[in-house]
Amino acid sequence: MTEEPAARRRRWQEADDLLLIYRETMGRPPRLGDAPGAALAVGPQRALYLAVDAGGRVTAFNGHVDLGTGIRTALAQIVAEELDVPLARVAMELGSTATAPDQGGTIASETIQIAAVPLRQAAATARRHLIEAASRRLNRGTGELVVAAGTVRVADEPDLAVAYGDLVRGGRTELTLDPEAPVKPVEDYAIVGQPVPRVDIPAKAVGAFTYVHDVRVPGMVHGRVVRPPVPGVETALGGLLLGVDEASVAHIPGLVGVVTLGDFVGVVAEREENAIEAARALRVTWRPGETLPDLNRPEAALRDNPATPRKLLDRGDVERALAHAEARLDRTYVWPYQMHGSIGPSCAVAAFRDGDLVVWSGTQNPHVLQSDLATLLDLPEERIAIERHEAAGCYGRNCADDVAADAALLARAVGRPVRVQLTREQEHAWEPKGAAQVMDVRGGLDAEGGPAAYDFETRYPSNGAPTLALILTGKVTATPATYPMGDRTAVPPYAFGNARVTVHDMPPIARASWMRGVSALPNTFAHESYIDELATAAGIDPIEYRLRYLPDPRAADLVRAVAERAAWVPHTRPGSHGGSGDVLYGRGFAYAVYVHGPFPGKAAAWAAWVADVAVNRVTGEVAVTRVVVGQDSGLMINPDGVRHQIHGNVIQSTSRVLKESVGFDATGVTSREWGSYPILAFPQVPEIDVLMVPRPHDPPLGAGESASVPSAAAITNALFDATGIRFRELPLTADAVRAALNPPRISGPEHPGGDSAPRRRRGFLAGLFGAGAGALALATTLLPWRPAYPSIERPDSAAYSAATIAQGRLVAAAGACLVCHAGPDGRSFAGGRGLETPFGTVYASNITPDVGAGIGAWSYPAFARAMREGVSRDGHHLYPAHPYPSFAGIAERDLQALYAYLMAQEPVARPAPETGLRFPFNLRPLMADWNALFLRPVATADPARGPDWNRGAYLVEVLGHCGACHSPRNALGAERRGEARLAGGFADGWEAPALTGLSRSPLPWTEDDLFAYLRKGRSARHGSAAGPMADVVASLAPLPDEDIRAMAVYLASLAGEAPAPRPTATATSRPAGSASLFQGACAACHEGGAGGDLVPLGLVTSVHSAHPDNLIQAVLNGVAAAAERFPNPDPGAPPAAMPAFRDTLTDRQVAEVVAYTRARYAPDAPAWTGLEAAVARVRGLRPHAGW
Amino acid sequence: MQDEGRPMAEDARPHDARLAPARHRLHVNGRGVSVEAAPGTRLLYVLRNDLALNGPKYGCGLGQCGSCTVLVDGRALRSCTIPLRAATGRRITTLEGLAEGGRLHPVQEAFIAENAAQCGYCLNGMIMTTVALLTANPDPSEAEIRDGLRANLCRCGTHVEILRAVRAAAARLRGRAQASAAAQASAA
Description:
The structure holds two protein chains of two kinds.
Chain A: H1 5-14, E1 18-26, H2 38-41, E2 44-53, E3 58-62, H3 71-83, E4 90-94, H4 111-138, E5 145-148, E6 151-154, E7 157-163, H5 164-168, E8 172-176, H6 201-204, E9 221-226, E10 241-245, E11 255-261, E12 264-269, H7 272-281, E13 283-286, H8 299-304, E14 308-315, H9 318-323, E15 327-328, E16 331-335, E17 347-353, E18 356-361, H10 366-377, E19 384-388, H11 400-414, E20 418-421, H12 424-430, E21 433-434, E22 437-445, E23 451-461, H13 468-472, E24 499-506, E25 512-513, H14 520-538, H15 542-548, H16 553-565, E26 579-580, E27 583-596, E28 602-616, E29 622-632, H17 639-659, E30 664-665, E31 668-669, E32 687-692, H18 711-723, H19 734-741, H20 773-777, H21 802-814, H22 817-821, E33 834-837, E34 840-843, H23 860-869, H24 884-887, H25 892-903, H26 927-934, H27 947-959, H28 963-966, E35 985-987, E36 990-992, H29 1007-1016, E37 1018-1019, E38 1023-1024, H30 1028-1035, H31 1041-1054, H32 1075-1081, H33 1083-1086, H34 1101-1104, H35 1109-1117, H36 1122-1125, H37 1147-1161, H38 1171-1180
Parallel strand pairs in A: 1-8, 3-4, 9-20, 18-19, 21-25, 23-24, 29-32
Antiparallel strand pairs in A: 1-2, 2-3, 5-6, 6-7, 9-12, 10-13, 11-12, 14-24, 15-22, 16-22, 17-18, 17-20, 22-23, 26-27, 27-28, 28-29, 30-31, 33-34, 35-36, 37-38
Chain B: H1 8-19, E1 22-28, E2 31-37, H2 43-50, E3 69-72, E4 75-78, H3 84-87, E5 91-93, H4 106-113, H5 123-136, H6 142-148, H7 159-187
Parallel strand pairs in B: 1-5
Antiparallel strand pairs in B: 1-2, 3-4, 3-5
Helix pairs in contact in B: 4-7
């Protein structure tokens, strides 16, 4: 635990033995959205920048924070250099509002260029003071002194020396930063400019670093939030919450509270997993939000979005030049919505201490967050401290501020410190996206092949994304302001004589804010694609063409250096690198200087790319194989750090260009995990050759974003070289590239959802009444009512021997009674479980020996009649959800033992819900007709077979009533017999596969496979028991191995009874489903081994079935680990459970992933049709109990 | 996302049973520990909140990203998908448990030497996966390394440094194995 911020602040303010450098400024840095004059209105400010203590240790303070880019190390280098102390003696305190100066948000590559300047001056001020103090102490002139490693020496008398610490000790000196204090000449640099290992990595590599996610404070509890169902659309917020049913989480252990405030909903629990469960289980009703325009192809939505044009440049006469152009070339470029995609979902801890709030946060903008929280909570800013800790890399505004506000609201509501971490789904859905952008260029060539004019317009729908809790609680309006941030690098770097640049400032559509290369990356995609198009049209090499119009000599130097490093071969048309087989190769160039900050902005580092690509013309897959990237960053504080940033920018921007695009539906963001928002993985990482221009005498420039900026155009220009096709819309997915390379001859959308009518399923009673008047007409001739047995006193269980009760327990286990009759605790026989039927829900009854609610008043004959004939004690008919047709053959001895066992159970007085089927299915007397038709015992004995087989037949057919689920049912809902017996059925939303030769398992079920499956719930050659079957396996646990073996013997014998027809797939060239979704969402475990030894999907029965239901069930609801489900789990079974994707993937996405799994792992089987509808249907069913 | 109109008994039954805390014995980083939590609690939360082991990180809860990776009986698995009950009786190693006798694991040394992190949130998964990878395959090819790390996501783009660290770690481990083989040979 770290020291409290207030105590730390006091220590710096009051302690002795310190030299402190303060800086005085008028006002604070302006913030986006500030009212005019607001920044100055806060008056004079005095902030601590540097402290030297009596141990000679230096603490330096900076308002900007380390977002994972190594700024902490680089800033420490600057301080160590200027003060001449070893790097290890410098500690940086970044972004703590209690101690660090307000320097605005950590954005736009400004830290080294801007925020580090006063820090260097503070160090120089301190150094001058210390040397002067040493001069007095040593009685020598300052000119005679030298400093090394924090000790001032007399140059000619090295033994005469005094350490910084000794100069500081014994007093407290506060100085004001002097911007004129002499700084070191660059020639003398020994630390700055040298590659230095990052100071934070050793702790991170051993788990000893305290990220914000790792902050724990005494008494802390765990919170989770529930967001409105308009994922990532802030304009839809406001008045959406209709109600919260707190009773729905009453069962959560350690629940601390449910908090609602406007549209803000959160839960708090003592333990984190219980907070997660509470957030999942909390029943919340919302009003639907407004419908979004299509943002998957965002061009139309952006053009329709209200905008204010802002002209940045108007040079020459654009219209005249266009009118006289030799050849017109008008182009549109489209950038998709993209995600910051922090690997760690945002997290914060908030605690109130005597009314003061401390928030531990990973924010980019500690001081802005402080103001936001003051507004949210109606607290003065000085009573709020933000303690900034590192978080997962964010590359712009993610949900760090949102979650800090969530934690503060929950902490205030429950009066305890609360830690909140967002879920992956929430971070994906709600992080303010990198905005989509549309760039139009009107232009052309003049008679000499030069650019006639350049009329550039760009549309950028984004702003600062107000902290979500402010909107959810109604503190700020849901109609967000427009921020003019579309202008970054909007002015092209080329000397076009006639040029006009217009930015259409517009409010966000989806929630959006700045992301690495803010608007400059899309703008440069257009500039650098267009100049390439001009060069091709003019018949001139693209690099040579650029150099003709590039007035900046430093830029031209870089362009030439990169071209030379890459051994660029000038060419004037595509195809410069040829191809082999289906693979085409190409090479492209792009250049940019990243101009950031409010227009006209400041230039960060220059960067240029040569990208090599390989594209498969059949599949459309694009690989960036190699990137030569050059960067001119001026003086590099830490060259290793700069190189690292260049690598990171190249990889991340390649990922954005090739793969990344946020998916939307009409309600909002549908990309809510990594399968639907894939990012570049190790196998696709290009070889990267970095050229860093040495310019130690030029000022340092921001290097955190520049190398991203040329990426898109370099790659699309290379793709043009490879294919001759210009790609002006991103990302370059295989689907998009394949479509461009192979335009379809017959159009027509096709997706695995299909549109075939949903199949009708025959469940219990299906068709019984639907069969129509004919079946009903039979009813009159049969006895509709049966007499009641008189009620009895509850039998004394002492009347039965322990052996009889033990035998009854085995009968109950073999009959899996608890699978249906379990009570709320999962153990007793209190009933209440509902079985879904097409006619309504049939509830299992209470079969504990309670006289009122259960069967305590039932005599044995009444019990036996119910079991064998389906007639209740009072004479009413039971529905065949109770499998009395199977039990009709039950041995008398077993039935008596079962009765004894049930009567020995603890009575539970709670009645099970009444089964209330819809008319006419609620007419129980009709069951009499049904019984007359179908109630016949199954013949199970066969003297020709061995005792195992006969025992197995009895266990399977009678006690186990396997046919109740595994046999298809006829039109009246009765199990079919004969060849159809055990040929596959449905139960409780799950397919019960064929147990006969009709099985579609790719490998036959042997006796050993069946034994393993029934005994331990898993066959390594077929998969694991799941859904209701997992309950059955668990129920069978008390049976001895011999009984399980007998069942396996009998079931194995069935396999030979009917030949399995093998339907084969019709050939299709189109790959089914979504490979990328499968790769991102499933492959880590199912192909990469990260879940342990899973049964290969190619062997899993559900993948080969005629019906997709069980696979859909598994994807939606997950699969429990063997150890959770089975009393005797297979020790070879993996410890992992399959996560449920119900709240993560849409119906369409589940259909895509199921279709792909089928196509890939059951290639001989026909594709499933109507998948999207099937997913919707299965989603509507109650998830199976025990899941 | 909730289904409307279900009787309470239906919803409450499975959750009640699964949320009931129970005592579990675990074997973590070479020592036995006892924790009290519901059997379905994901191992990740037990490691972080009950045992204060911060190496494994929550990244997705879906087994996709690898931030929560731990070694289970020497295999790199995702602790966000492992129920507490399934973790009992297995040897669990976290990032904190890799060092031996006060000396960092060679994979940790290599990642530090190569500066193989930016924000470092994925670093736990990268190191743990590499340890398992190099145990199974001490001399992997470049393609095998990339394939072995394919399901570990890094957003900062630190792949170049990570690949370099894995190669360096493989060399360190092979060097150590050769040295100990040579020592044994000379002792014999």
